[in-house]
Design a protein that fits this description.
heterodimer; A: 277 residues; mainly alpha; two-stranded antiparallel sheet; 11 helices; globular; B: 129 residues; 4 helices; 76% helix; elongated
Chain lengths: 277, 129
């Protein structure tokens, strides 16, 4: 297979990954690295570099649509970014020191968890009383609803902040957006309304990935010939997904995608354990 | 009242920033696509070696090197330039948030945002401890 043929196939694969990622809300980035490493035999470091770039593309590309909705809470996002960006630099530095086989195993475990997390239903939170730390940091806000602006109170700030550090570390270590973990940290630990969690998470993913990108670039993980079809494919796929989303029934698609992610997880762990990655 | 004014500034700055981000992504994707076309025309028939990690050459890992290569119309360097524009988009968003929080006279968040910006600059400068 020559460079041209590989570019076309990688572009197509990335397009499908971006489309499914955006329709299911899991993000396309998470399957890019296993796809490149397992199906195309790309070295794990190059695969992670290309995946990281595509994560930034989808995050920035979707920002305009999200801002119009008015759900993003910039204070929550920016405060938690302190944890995710520091985590990302730590994770990216770890990635340069750990053997690829070990990274593949961790990747597989994170994939398994993401598949499980995506299959769970969203729980509604009871109205919580104001929390002292959240008040101090002015994290409480409101979001638009059909009955007008709805106020919400944030809690569990230390737990959320710690989970965000983990999310950032995994993002840098694996070249992913860690969107699933970010949403869990906000939704479950901090009781941020789900829609606010997902849109704020989208903003955070891009900033976190940029924090890893510096380290990846300097270590030579980002190969232009490979990142080019991945970035263009994922970007187009995720934009198509955003268009199709209101017209698509996603329940079955989510299950299907979760099964694919779980299968990739098992492959990654197996390859890591047998030292084939 | 003060809260309503904040919200208004927030929303306005956010809308400007969102449009800038979209423009940044479109620009980045166009540059990457142009560089990609040049790269495939020149190197499309070669056999790729992505299976073995060698690391990119030094020129592709720094801004001056990338700019120099892009100026001589090397496809790979033009792609890399597009990727650098892309990586700059979230950084620009954080920088604009500093301005937004300054307009709101929110010192606490100007400080928090500057910390985030500092981490980003540290990483983009190579991120070596």
């Amino acid at each position: 297979m020559n460079t041209f043929e590989l570019a076309i196939l990688v572009w197509l694969g990335s397009l499908v990954a971006g489309l499914l990622g955006s329709l299911t809300g899991l993000g396309g980035g998470i399957v890019i690295t296993p796809l490149l490493a397992l199906a195309f035999g790309v070295d794990l470091h190059y695969a992670m570099g290309a995946s990281l770039v595509s994560v930034i593309a989808t995050s920035s590309g979707a920002a305009a649509a999200y801002v119009k909705e008015g759900f993003t809470n910039m204070r929550i996002g920016m405060f938690l970014e302190v944890a995710t960006t520091v985590g990302a630099v730590v994770g990216a530095t770890m990635a340069t020191r750990l053997p690829a086989s070990r990274i593949a195993i961790i990747f597989g475990i994170v994939l398994l968890y993401s598949a499980y997390a995506s299959s769970r239903t969203i729980s509604a939170h009871a109205a919580a009383p104001p929390d002292r730390i959240a008040k101090l940091l002015r994290l409480d806000s409101q979001y638009p609803s059909v009955e007008g602006p709805k106020a919400y109170h944030v809690r569990g700030v230390p737990a959320g902040f710690s989970l965000m550090f983990v999310a950032g570390t995994l993002s840098g270590l694996l070249g992913i957006g860690s969107g699933a973990l970010k949403v869990i940290a906000m939704d479950q630990a901090m009781h941020v309304p789900f829609k606010v969690s997902t849109t704020t998470s989208n903003f955070m993913i891009g900033v976190t990935a940029a924090a890893s990108a510096g380290v990846y670039l300097e270590r030579g993980y980002i190969d232009p010939g490979l990142a080019m079809p991945v970035m263009l494919g994922v970007l187009l796929g995720s934009l198509m997904g955003a268009r199709l989303l209101p017209k698509t029934r996603t329940a079955r698609l989510r299950t299907l995608f979760a099964v694919v992610v779980a299968a990739l997880a098992v492959e990654m762990i197996y390859h890591g354990m047998t030292g084939r990655i | 009242m003060e809260n309503a004014a904040n919200r208004w500034t927030d929303q306005r700055v956010e809308t400007i920033v969102a449009n800038l981000l979209r423009a940044g992504v479109i620009l980045a994707a166009s540059v990457v696509a142009f560089g990609g076309a040049l790269f495939l025309i020149r190197h499309g028939r070669e056999i790729p070696h992505y299976g073995i990690f060698a690391g990119e050459p030094g020129d592709l890992r720094s801004l001056p090197g990338t700019l120099g290569g892009a100026a001589s119309f090397d496809g790979r360097y033009i792609i890399q330039l597009g990727l650098l524009i892309l990586i700059a988009t979230p950084v620009a968003r954080v920088a604009f948030s500093v301005i937004a929080f300054t307009l709101e006279r929110d010192r606490l968040y100007v400080g928090i945002t500057l910390v985030v910006l500092a981490v980003l600059v540290f990483s983009l400068a190579g991120g070596r401890f």
